[in-house]
Amino acid sequence: MLVEVYSDIACPWCYVGKRRFEKALAEFAGADAIEVVYRPYQLDPTTPEQAAPLSAHLAAKFGADALPAMHARLNEVGMGEGISFDFDKALSANTFTGHRLLWHALDAYGRDTQAALKDRLLKAYFSEGANVGDHAQLVDAAVDAGMDRDRTAAFLASDAGVEETRREIDEARQIGVTAVPTFVFAGKWAVQGAQETETFARVLAQVTEQVAAEAPAADEAAKPGEAGEAGDDCADGACAV
């Protein structure tokens, strides 16, 4: 069964959701039959290419008064998932090129390498203050994920993957993805947000059973865009446009 995870490198809940889903999958008896791929989504495609302090970007979007509580909540949740958020160090940068690199990782190296690169980019963005729009830093992240340095640099210097990445971002909106992370199971059922590990475990069992029976989805599953509500911010569990 294919699980497509729509997420953005600039979404902290996508980092949390990835960790929780991976925990659930590691304990799932049918894990060998699950194929996980990461699809691109940009919360703010207008973010400048030039990196700038993330705190200033968030303050302009949500208001400076909202940031302490938002960051405190994410720090608390992150600690529980082995994630060390550093919002004071983090840099805001356009994530399109990072998504294009993730497309290349899947196309040229496979799902495991793409997952490793996704984790590396999230850590770089939220824990290390890296510029995920900078080609040199993206190459370093790719090498850490097991990709070839020269091949990666050549890819980033070309226009390869640009059209494909744009098409996948457009497709996400066309199927109704409005907040991330969104997990789409077998192209039919979606779960939105960084659910608890136990919830992901139940979903994996339920959807696997549904796929095996070729029956309609249970009430707990929904079409993309219908699995819960999210405000116009990084509320608990999901980041919305």
How would you characterize the overall build of this protein?
With 241 residues, the protein is α+β, with helices and mostly antiparallel strands. It has one domain (2-240): Glutaredoxin (3-Layer(aba) Sandwich). The protein is built from 9 helices and 9 strands. The strands form 3 sheets. A 4-stranded mixed beta sheet has the order 2-1-6-7. The chain has a 3-stranded antiparallel beta sheet with strand order 5-9-8, covered by helices on one side. Strands 3-4 form a two-stranded antiparallel ribbon. A hairpin with a 3-residue loop joins strand 6 and strand 7 (189-192). Helix 4 packs antiparallel against helix 5 (111-127). The longest helix has 17 residues, at 111-127. Residues 217-232 have low confidence and may be disordered. This is DsbA family protein. It comes from Yinghuangia aomiensis. Residues 1-174 form the Thioredoxin domain.
Fold blueprint:
Layout: E1 2-7, H1 12-26, E2 35-40, E3 52-53, H2 54-62, H3 67-80, E4 91-92, H4 96-108, H5 111-127, H6 135-144, H7 149-157, H8 162-174, E5 179-180, E6 182-185, E7 189-192, H9 197-213, E8 234-235, E9 238-240
Largest beta-sheet characterization = 4 strands, mixed
Overall CATH class:
Alpha Beta
Percent of residues in β-strands: 5-15%
Q: What is the CA–CA distance across the termini?
A: 28 Å
> Helix fraction?
40-55%
In the CATH hierarchy, what is the superfamily? Glutaredoxin
How much is the radius of gyration in Å?
17 Å
For the largest sheet, list the strands in their spatial order. Answer: 2-1-6-7
Given the C-alpha coordinates, what overall shape results?
A: globular
What's the CATH topology name? Glutaredoxin
Mean pLDDT: 91
Element pattern in H and E: EHEEHHEHHHHHEEEHEE
Which structural class is indicated by helix and strand composition? Answer: alpha+beta
CATH architecture: 3-Layer(aba) Sandwich
Quickly count the helices.
Answer: 9
The tally of structural domains comes to 1
Unreliable spans:
217-232
